[in-house]
Structure to design on (122 residues):
């Protein structure tokens, strides 16, 4: 069984169970930590989602918060997450709730051919 970012329980160093809605070829494309260190975001290619985990400040253990359709980078402000959608030819922009870590689609995007990765440059 291949490891993915789709665990429904807490995880330590590996994830042992694929998502229930998993499609063939699922793999993590990028991992980002929120600027405040409280949340981890992992993009899933194949499942086409962003896994959101809270980070326990004492142990570093992760707990699943949510899955949001579509993969990305968090700007230094921490207010948004940018998702490179390779097969859709666009970068989607999500609003990030700093209290819960959850993402909400802003309805805004940037059209660009086959984006693979988003890096924030200061």
């Amino acid at each position: 069984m291949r490891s993915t970012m789709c665990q429904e329980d807490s995880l330590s160093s590996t994830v042992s169970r694929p998502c229930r809605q998993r499609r063939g070829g699922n793999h993590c494309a990028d991992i980002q930590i929120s600027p405040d260190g409280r949340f981890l975001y992992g993009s899933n290619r194949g499942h086409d989602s962003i896994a959101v985990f809270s980070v326990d400040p004492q142990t570093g253990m992760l707990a699943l918060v949510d899955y949001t359709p579509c993969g990305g980078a968090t700007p230094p402000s921490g207010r948004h997450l940018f998702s490179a959608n390779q097969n859709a030819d666009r970068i989607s922009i999500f609003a990030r709730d700093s209290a819960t870590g959850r993402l909400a689609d802003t309805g805004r995007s940037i059209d660009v051919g086959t984006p693979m990765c988003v890096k924030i440059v200061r």
